[in-house]
Specification:
By secondary structure, the protein is α+β, with helices and mostly antiparallel strands. It has a domain at 442-585. 57% of the residues lie in helices and 13% in strands. It has 19 helices and 14 strands. The strands form four sheets. Strands 3, 4, 5, 6, 7, 10, 11 and 12 form an eight-stranded mixed sheet that branches. A two-stranded antiparallel ribbon has the order 1-2. The chain has a two-stranded antiparallel ribbon with strand order 8-9. α8 runs parallel beside α10 (377-413) and α14 packs parallel to α18. The longest helix is centred in the middle third of the chain and has 37 residues, at 284-320.
């Protein structure tokens, strides 16, 4: 079905929850005015609707095809990518020094949501390129930046990140790919798997960032270095030379995102793939995390985007599908299923959670902008701590929720949702990878517990909780918003008690906090989503009297009420699982699982 970007809600979050005046106050963002942002979003919405969305279902059916080492993209993808590059979309938030447009991350996030919602398989290609740009921009030499960044920013070349090997999944200490010094460069030998867009026919070159070991490297993660290995060698004058010694052995047959090629790459079958060391030896994993952190936020946007796409499709179907009489009306006419209370419940759940995810993701993007651009070092540090805290929540909670929303979308369709022709099943299949990409939900949760809460004694989390409390205290104590306030304050209290428990417990009993890590991540997401829903309702309440867009603002208040009654109520059970769930998780010995 068609995709129409939710421009009104995007504009609401950008202008009324975050405030474009706050964005424009950051150095380098002085020209960020509502008219400019609206123009960018309008054009992106047209591209997403008219170019990318029509390729989504056909691309899923056709899939990427591997033939004799070459990957052929589904029909229309190469042309769409050429139009994407010609439109300057790849350069939107990149450094102007290398041809970027320098727009803030919070504006770019809204645009990137559109790409992922319109066609997630397509959007994965620029997602990975952005990660390569980030890593080279921060860690590359001046010569490497000059050689690669202009083309990557433009989109003429695409980028990948090469971590995983057959024996080294999440445990990167087991990486075996070798890099042997050879004059002024290195020869890379090994195999990498699960390389998204590791081979395709949409761009003239692919720049691989590869984890490998030097001959004298220590064991474990401390012995991993990062190398840039192009598919086609780049001459001194920037022109393309000979094909490098890297080839695509195959692509995976996957549950979803069939149009996105997931490659198995072999390096050095002949003389060794020519590569350059990025940064210092044995610091490759540290550098790769630059890419991974950016990619984790982007995957969170994928979750949001799939939720939006599934919600739009379910809503359209519920309005059109006529089935049964309205509850309580005997002998009445058959009505669209949106008139049935349980269908309303499902649609409200999809809508409320999607809007909460959008607000939280964009707020996180604004924290990234502040951390990168604010003139005051202390303010930058606080913003970076906030972004670091929220990124695993955005990644983990938004993707887990996306699967739930996409599954609910199938349920709204009934039996037709299980039929591939409707497209509802594709959203569920595509969403399923997002909780695994760039570290599973468990890895995100362990990051939240160990690095983002326990490491600083919960300081960053308590700062976020203090802001949540202050926002909740602005809400009235009666009426619809009084109910929202009461539920939010309860949720904040439950989250605060879990943060305190983790800060006190992690050092002495990491197994206990590990057992409750995913429930804590979900609790953080549920409460943070309620925080944003409450903020939206408070803005809406104040706008009702003086604004013609009455239905939009009334919907914000009603959606917040649904959220606190049907979503935020999960906080009680999640908080219990965090603090009291470890004995059950660890109850069985290994042999007892099969008993």
């Amino acid at each position: 079905m068609a995709y129409n970007a939710p421009l009104r809600d995007m504009q609401f979050v950008l202008t009324e929850l975050i405030g474009l005046d706050r964005v424009a106050a950051l150095p380098g963002c002085e020209g960020i005015e509502p008219d400019l942002v609206d123009a960018v979003l309008d054009e992106a919405a047209k591209f997403a609707r008219d170019v990318l969305a029509p390729l989504n279902q056909p691309g899923d059916h056709q899939g990427a095809q591997w033939r004799n080492g070459t990957v052929h993209m589904p029909e229309g993808f190469a042309d769409a990518y050429a139009r994407y590059v010609a439109g300057g979309w790849n350069a939107l938030s990149c450094d102007p020094e290398y041809g970027g447009q320098g727009l803030p991350a919070v504006v770019s996030a809204a645009v990137e949501e559109m790409w992922h919602a319109a066609n997630m398989a397509f959007g994965l290609c620029p997602l990975l390129t952005r990660g390569a740009i980030e890593a080279l921009h921060l860690c590359g030499t001046p010569a490497q930046k000059d050689r690669y960044l202009h083309k990557l920013v433009e989109g003429a070349w695409t980028g990948t990140m090469n971590l995983t090997e057959p024996q080294a999944g999440s445990d990167l200490s087991a990486v075996r790919t070798r890099a042997v010094p050879d004059g002024g460069h290195y020869r890379v030998y090994g195999q990498k798997i699960y390389i998204t867009y590791g081979e395709h026919d949409m761009a003239e070159n692919i720049v691989h960032l590869v984890l490998a070991r030097l001959p004298d490297a220590p064991e474990g993660v401390r012995g991993i270095s990062l190398f840039v290995v192009p598919k086609v060698l780049v001459e001194a004058d920037g022109s393309l030379g000979a094909r490098n010694d890297v080839r695509c052995v195959s692509i995976e047959h996957k549950l979803g995102i069939h149009a996105s090629p997931t490659a198995v790459l072999a390096y050095g079958d002949e003389d060794g793939a020519v590569g350059e060391l990025v940064g210092e030896p044995n610091r490759g994993l540290e550098y790769m995390f630059v890419m991974m952190n950016a990619a984790r936020f982007q995957v969170g946007l994928e979750g949001l985007a799939i939720g939006e796409r599934a919600w739009q499709q379910a809503l359209a179907y519920a309005r059109d599908r006529v089935q049964g009489e309205e509850a309580g009306v005997r002998g009445g006419a058959r009505v669209p299923i949106i008139r049935h209370p349980d269908v309303r419940r499902m649609l409200m759940g999809m809508k409320a959670q999607t809007e909460a995810m959008r607000a939280l993701a964009y707020v996180t993007a604004f924290a990234l902008d502040t951390a990168a651009r604010h003139p005051d070092p202390a303010t930058r540090a606080v913003a970076q701590a906030r972004a670091d805290l929220l990124i695993p929540v955005v990644k983990g909670w938004c993707t887990e929720t996306a699967i739930e929303i996409a599954s609910t979308g199938v349920q709204v369709h009934g039996g037709m949702g299980y039929i591939e022709d409707t497209g509802a099943a594709q959203h569920l299949r595509d969403a399923r990878i997002t909780t695994i990409y760039e570290g599973t939900t468990g890895i995100q949760a362990n990051d939240l517990v160990g690095r983002k809460i326990a490491r600083d004694g919960g300081a960053a989390a308590r700062a976020a909780l203090a802001e949540m409390r202050a926002d909740a205290a602005q809400l009235p104590m009666d009426g619809e918003l009084g109910a929202v306030r009461e539920s939010l304050e309860t949720g904040i209290g439950l989250l605060a008690s879990c943060v305190d428990w983790v800060a006190e417990t992690h050092a002495r009993d990491p197994q206990a906090t590990g057992a409750g890590a995913v429930p804590l991540l979900k609790l953080f997401g549920v409460v943070a989503g309620g925080w944003q829903a409450a903020r939206a309702a408070w803005v809406a309440e104040r706008k009702l009297g003086a604004n013609a867009d009455r239905d939009f603002y009334l919907a914000k208040i009603g959606t917040a009420r649904f959220y606190v009654d049907h979503v935020l109520t999960q906080a009680h059970g999640l908080a219990h699982a965090v603090q009291h769930g470890a004995p059950g998780v660890l109850a069985l010995d290994e042999v007892q699982f099969a008993a």
